[in-house]
Amino acid sequence: MLPTVADVLALDTVRRGSPRVVAGVDRLDTRVRWVHVGEIADIAHLLRGGELVLTTGVALPGEPGELAEYISGLASVGASGLIVELGRRFVRELPHAIVEAAEEHGLPLITLARETPFVQITESVHARIIDCQLQELRASEQLHEVFTALSVEGASQAEVLGQVTRFSGCPVLLENLAHQVLACDAAGADTGVILTNWESRSRSVSPAERTAYDTAAGWLVTMVGARGQDWGRLIMFCDTPPTPRDIVLVERAATTLALGRLLERHKESLERQAHGTIITGILTHAFSNPDEAAARARAVGVPLTGRRLISAVVRLTAPPGTALGEQARLGELAEAAAAACREIKLPALVGALDQNRVGVLLPLPPRAPAEAALGALAERLRATFASPFVLAAGSVVESVKDVRRSFLEAEQVAEVAVRQPDGRAFYRLPDLRLRGLLHLLRDDARLQTFAERELGALLSHDAQRHGDLTRILRIYLDAGRNKAVAAQKAHLSRPAFYDRLRRLERVLDTNLDDVESCLSLHVALLALETFRRENP
User: Tens digit of pLDDT for each residue in 188-215?
Assistant: First the structure.
């Protein structure tokens, strides 16, 4: 560290001059960046701050006002202090005006009662400054080597924080932007004390600069992030203001943490791309035979041969946002699904299928039921991924060559489930029942013809007369053909509701007391809803 004014006064070359502090005694801890000898009154514009000025005063003005202006100029540029050798201009003491000005501006002012070669002072101080700079350079080089190695090795957050405490001896903590603790190294201190009421304490410390020291809290705080996206804060607990080395230390550690996160994301992204390529290859028959697909999966750590396989599709259910935002959220969903598979100890291929679907191919352990694996996956994924989604699964197959059929089934189930999710952990084709069947057949001209034949007359009647008989029919059928309940749900009196039913029978030319007729009408209404959801 740079020497202070007090350190300079303690040097033998200065002590031989019998130094006496006549002003600014409370500012002797000011750091000295350099020593400058100057015998001119307008020296302030030649300084950059941090200089300790030496002078005999031979060229200083005689007027009190001009002397005060001289001191004001030194203070304004951040000079560390002023040493005046008595005997040439000022014989026994300095003028009162210069002492008052120095005291007013907080500028350390020292007199030397004996003649002292200034060159000896400058040589002594500069040698110490250069030695300090060399030590800082060596320390900086050591920090660079250590944290570069940590970056290359992909060190964990705990390992990075451990190095910070080793170099500083101070506790250090990493938090996210929600002020939740991600990692902490107490450096031997009481971790419980450090973390007490952490969130409220952390929120009260918000420095304006990217790296800053909060004197009240005793925290050195620096932001952690890269590419303009901060995701946390690194905090060093130090009772005294940090040294330049401390600042370099926390900033270098923050860079290592940010780089580690970027590398981890890049690694995960590459893994998802590799998995997605294999899944897409299976679905598009890109591989020459199933054995090639199995070999590629085995190469990424997912054994498919000799296992029962089940395909799943995960789809987001929230309203779509911007394309970029949806793509980023889908990437997060894929990573969350992969992490969930790892946590439940099920190696799986996980990758995006398109812009709104994530595919999962699960090799099931021997004798493990598919429902248990899907339930565990859904439970873990919901615990870690906040946005709503549906998990749909196909049938269990015995070989890679049948995976495509399982995936197609899962995709079809997902398309139905995402439109009317009912909170199930996961969906399979039997869960969708008649609605699922109608959705699968929605593009079939025979189903469209059936719905038109059953409801065409009614739809035309309502369109021409702006009627609501279609709604009345739906309410009646949903109520299980209970006329009293249906009338109540339609908010009509019984006579009025019965009259609507008679009009329905005339328009449809059918008997609504006939079970088979009502069943056909109900299926046609469900099919109509499927068509309308597809083409709003």
Answer: 888 888 888 888 899 899 998 899 999 9
